Each structure stands twice: as structure tokens, then as C-alpha cells.
Amino acid sequence: MEMKKRIHLELRNRTPSDVKELVLDNCCSNDGKLEGLTDEFEELVFLSTMRVGLTTVANLPKLKKLKKLELSYNKISGGLEVLVEKCPNLTHLNLGGNRIKDLSTIEPLKELGTLRSLELYTCEVTNLSEYRDNVFKLLPQLIYLDGYDKDDKETSDSDTKLYAEGWEYGDEDEDVDEEDYDDDDDDDDAPSGEEEEDEGDDDEEENEEGALSGEEEDEDDLNEKEVDDEEEAEEDEQDWGQKRKRELNEEDEDDD
């Protein structure tokens, strides 16, 4: 796919000034030059053109906010002074896999005071004697060369943020993570469906127990009432028997 067409597809009905990240990897550049990029991409902070056949970056538009530029696996052999003029705030530059043979080719990069990470892996320049020491001397602003600092300590995620500081895409990702974290907390606080079911079952059991208790109480009351009625009947019967006995005695006395 041609680079111009790829840029058109990447815009997705946006204007160039709305784009902050543009990935054009593996598309085709005519005559080894950048095509379709203009100064209208003024908000661009990340640009990737890996394996597009570039031989020069001369056509690069002025991108004052560009922080990270990926140019790996192209055919660039010089002309890097353009980057100083066009991308003055660059922090990360990947030139790995290009045709860079000597230190003089990268010397213009010393004017990029914000540059923190440079990658030159598989370039011929990496075969020079004391390559790493000489690059750090030539570019004192560098923190990482090919992913390692002067003490051969490998770059970490936190260190990556250091040289990409101010890259708005990174800030937006952090905001999203915080929102996701808050949402997760809310989900943890909310009762699950199983817990709600368990609570419903507990309520049903309590209702059943309450109903059984009520039935048992009614049965107890009924039994107590029957006992009271029986006792009252026995008392009435005893009273009637005593009364009848007195009447018979009185009749005997009258007969005498």
C-alpha cells in the first residue's frame, strides 16, 4: 500500500491536527521519501515508519511536538541534521537496521538537547571499537543507547517514561488505568449474583422458621385451652356432686 493511501486510512475521518499517533509501518514509499505528511500534523507526538524503504528523511515536515520517531529497518545513511530542524523536541529515535557506518553520521544529533534514547542496533557503526563509549561522549544528553545506559543497565518501564515525559498518549493511558481501577473497586463492593441468591435463600429460611414457630405457638395455645376447659369441667362436676349430696342428707333429715 502506498504511503499516501495509508495515511488517508489512518486518519479515519479525522483532520491531521487531531492526530497524535501515526503508524505507517510496512507501507510503500516512492523514491525512498516520506509522502503525504504535512505541517498540518502539528499535534503529532509519535510517528512510526518501519520497513517502508526510506533512504532519506528530507521530506519530513516540521513536527514541533514529536517525541518518538521510529525509522528502523530502512535504508537511511545520512542527512540526520534535518531532524534537528524539523523535530526539535525529540526524546526517542530508533535508527536500528539502517545504513549508518560511522559516528560522523549521527554527530548532528548532539544538537537535539532533549534526546534521551537512541537505537542503532545492527547498523555497521555498532562494530566500531569502543562504540558505546564514543557515542555517549558524542551525545552527552543520552541516557540510553540500544536499550542500555552507560553502566549497562537495561531500560525499564519507568525509565521509558522518563525520556518520553510529556508524551500526551502516555498521560491518557494512565488516566484510563485509574478509571479502570476505580471501576474494579466498584465491582468488588457490589454483591455478586450468587451472594444475592444466598441472601434470598436466607430470607426464605427465616420466613419458613417464623411460620413454623407461629404454628407451634398456636398449637401450644390450643392445648393449654383444652387443659383449662377439662379442669374447669372437673371442678364443676365436683361442685355438683357435693351439692347433690347435701340435698340428699337434708331429705333424710326431713323424713325422720
UniProtKB/TrEMBL annotation:
Composition-biased stretches (Basic and acidic residues): 149-162
UniProt entry keywords in alphabetical sequence: Leucine-rich repeat, Nucleus, Repeat
Highest taxon of source: Eukaryota
Record-annotated U2A'/phosphoprotein 32 family A C-terminal domain positions: 128-146
GO process terms (BP): regulation of apoptotic process
SMART domains for this protein: LRRcap
UniProt protein name: Acidic leucine-rich nuclear phosphoprotein 32 family member
